[in-house]
Amino acid sequence: MEPQNRISNKALTVWKISGLIGCSITWILSIAILVLTIIFDWTYWVFGAMIIISIIQFYLTIFLIPSVKWKRWRYEVRNTEIDIQSGIFVIKRTLIPMIRVQHVETKQGPLLRKYELASVEISTAATMHVIPALDLTEADELRHYISKMASVEEEDV
C-alpha cells in the first residue's frame, strides 16, 4: 500500500519559481551567445539551438516536472517506519526503520520561508532522506513525532 500523505500544494509554486530562476540563467547565456555571435560573426545555428533548449527547459521545469513531482511525492510516518515515495519517471519507495533514525531537522530556504513551508530531513547512519515542502506547522509536528518515536525505539533495544 502506497503512502497516503502528500506534500503541500504550495510546493508547486516554489518548484515553479526555482525552475524560472534556472531558466533565467539559460536566457542570460542565450543572450551572451547572441552577442558573441554578432561580434565574432559566428553562425546563427548555435543561438537557434540555445533558443530551442531554452523553450524546452521552460516547459519542463515550470509546467511538466513540478506537477508530476507533486503528484508522485507521498510519505507516511508509522510507529516503526517512515515510508517515502518520490520520483518523476522512476518511482522510488524508501522504508526507513525508526530504529535507524539518528536525528531529524527542519530546514527552510528563502523561497520555502516566503510560502511558510519547511523540509524535514531524516538522518540515518548511511544517508539522509528529505520530505520537502511541508506546511511549517506540519513539518514541526512531524519532526517532533519522528524524534519521539526514534528515541522510544532506541530505548526498547
Beta-strand portion reads 25-35%
Q: How would you sum up the major sheet?
A: 4 strands, antiparallel
Q: What's the mean pLDDT score?
A: 92
Envelope shape: elongated
Structure description:
The protein is an alpha+beta fold and 157 residues long. Helices cover 54% and strands 26% of the residues. It contains 4 helices and 7 strands; from the N terminus they run βααββββαββα. The chain has helices at 10-40, 45-72, 110-114, 136-156, and strands at 5-6, 74-77, 81-86, 92-97, 101-107, 117-124, 128-135. The strands form 2 sheets. It has a 4-stranded antiparallel sheet. Strands 5-6-7 form a 3-stranded antiparallel sheet. Helix 1 packs antiparallel against helix 2 (45-72). Mean pLDDT is 92; it is low at 153-157.
Spell out the key features of this protein.
single chain, 157 residues, alpha+beta, four-stranded antiparallel β-sheet, three-stranded antiparallel β-sheet, disordered C terminus
Secondary structure layout plus pairing:
Blueprint: E1 5-6, H1 10-40, H2 45-72, E2 74-77, E3 81-86, E4 92-97, E5 101-107, H3 110-114, E6 117-124, E7 128-135, H4 136-156
Antiparallel strand pairs: 1-2, 2-3, 3-4, 5-6, 6-7
